[in-house]
User: Fold this.
Amino acid sequence: MPKKISMEIIEQENVGSNVYRLTLAGKFSAQPGQFVQVAVSTAYDPFLKRPFSVHDCSANTLTLLYRRSGRGTSLLAEKKAGEKLEVVGPLGTGFPMVTEDKIILVAGGIGSAPLFYLLKTLQAAGKKVAFYYGARSKNELILREQYQMLADEYMEATDDGSCGHQGVVTELMADVLDEEKPVIFACGPDGMLRAVAKLAKRNKCRCYVSLEAHMACGVGACLGCVVPNIRGEYVRVCVEGPVFPAVEVF
Ligand SMILES: Cc1cc2nc3c(=O)[nH]c(=O)nc-3n(C[C@H](O)[C@H](O)[C@H](O)COP(=O)(O)OP(=O)(O)OC[C@H]3O[C@@H](n4cnc5c(N)ncnc54)[C@H](O)[C@@H]3O)c2cc1C
Ligand code: FES
Assistant:
């Protein structure tokens, strides 16, 4: 059973346009790619907890990176250091550890959230990690400096050309996939994930994608988050996912 943990807010930082990094104190551990459900209100409205990827964690801290997009995330953005939050997790199936040494992480906008912890974990295991970051414009390449500093190789692309390559991030990847056959881990909008999955298949590279779905229970009971796999069966993003082999879901 996933644990319900009461965590204290250490820091809430505004790190971009409507994007916040929230650091919580409490005993916690997770695999990269797993997520937590956060109670954004102590009242019954909104009733449902909201799912967020683990952006980073240590034995005594959990960090989330989130975009304020609606009622729940707006309530969360108002919370201050010292307040307590109820968190359920870790939940779901994260990114698998792989034996290959060359790995590419592909992020789209706020989809970078789970890839920071993954990047650190892979590097601690001795892997060479390239980070490819795409967004509509420079201000949506959230905390780009931390990936630029940490990754063994860093590439970026924006639709409007305000930073890095003008165009989509997959345009930067084709040659590397063909030559080096890396394993790919991706998180971002559906369109980007489909493009990455297609490119990976064409180049015979293993690829894992982290999906988002609207969630209610977060623990496999309500079936609110199901998506069809390639065999036409329904899989639960909150239990079998959010990370899936790309060939399973696209
Ligand atoms: C496994 C998982 C991990 C996630 N990790 C992160 C993260 O690390 N950082 C982050 O910013 N967001 C993340 N999300 C999305 C986040 O849960 C939603 O943005 C949030 O629940 C919106 O709540 P709200 O009450 O503010 O918005 P609502 O008022 O409920 O909705 C506002 C807008 O957000 C959209 N939305 C609502 N829920 C989701 C959802 N589950 N997925 C996609 N869009 C949604 C709605 O369609 C609407 O356009 C994750 C979602 C899942 C399923
Ligand atoms: S959110 Fe209830 S089964 Fe996934």
User: Anything to note?
Assistant: The pocket of flavin-adenine dinucleotide (ligand 1) is lined by residues 35, 50-53, 65-67, 69-73, 110, 113, 212-215, 242 (CB under 6 Å). Residues 102-249 form a domain with the Rossmann fold fold (CATH 3.40.50.80).
